[in-house]
Write a structure and sequence with these properties.
Blueprint (H helix, E strand, L loop, with lengths): L9 E6 L3 E9 L2 E5 L13 E4 L1 H5 L5 E2 L4 E3 L3 E3 L5 H14 L12 H10 L6 H26 L6 H45 L8
Antiparallel strand pairs: 1-2, 1-5, 2-3, 3-4, 6-7
Helix pairs in contact: 2-3, 2-5, 4-5
Length: 209
């Protein structure tokens, strides 16, 4: 151990210029992740796997992710469960190897990490931020349209087409997000909750040390 992290820490590392890659720290030689985490292009065919901390960071600097707070922009971030449970869940998923392929929107490394930390919280805050930015963009666009309407100016045809495309793409993205999460739960639900019962009955459950 290098002293930076403790087993069960939820880590993320910035992959410029696109996103944060997430994983669960077990030791310096073992971080469990979904996908390779190097680029978005090479994640599609990857599975849950274990790599060294150095490989996980890949030249970046990993940080522990904060849990147990509420954000006005991304909503509720549930508190982290007992660290040993986080590790056990990550090892369980590594062994189970769910068949659902990586999906940037609805089945990504952050969702897997949040699930291990919380026990059931399958959310990606990066995707939530994307939805939030889209909503802000839509509000600005509608404000612009309202201004033109008040000034009795005609609406450009491109603006109408862009507005329709924006709405339809937003609906499609949200549907994909929800569908992927439901599909993942449909695949693993029975195995997952059987493992959760084992963790609940473990003598370590409820201990703080």
């Amino acid at each position: 151990m290098n002293g930076r992290f403790q087993p069960g820490n939820h880590l993320h590392v910035w992959r410029p210029p696109d996103y944060y890659h997430h994983g669960i720290y077990v030791s310096d030689d073992r971080v469990i992740q979904l996908g390779s985490g190097v680029t978005l292009r090479n994640k599609r065919g990857t599975a849950i796997n274990a790599v060294s901390l150095a490989d996980f960071e890949n030249g970046g600097t990993a940080e522990a992710v904060r849990h147990g707070y509420s954000s006005w922009f991304t909503g509720w971030h549930p508190p982290a469960d007992e660290p040993w449970k986080t590790v056990e869940r990550a090892e369980f998923l590594l062994k189970l190897q769910p068949k659902l392929r990586y999906n940037l929107i609805g089945h990504n490394c952050e969702i897997i990490a949040n699930m291990c930390v919380s026990g059931a919280w399958t959310e990606s805050y990066q995707v939530r931020r994307f939805f939030g930015v889209r909503a802000i963009g839509a509000a600005v666009f509608l404000f612009w349209l309202a201004g033109r309407s008040r000034a009795k100016l005609p609406l450009p045809e491109w603006a109408i087409r862009a507005g329709i495309a924006w709405v339809l793409s937003g609906i499609g993205t949200i549907m994909m997000y929800n569908h992927q999460i439901k599909q993942f739960w449909a695949e693993i639900r029975d195995d997952w909750f059987a493992n959760e019962r084992i963790l609940a009955d473990d003598p370590r459950s409820g201990l703080t040390s």
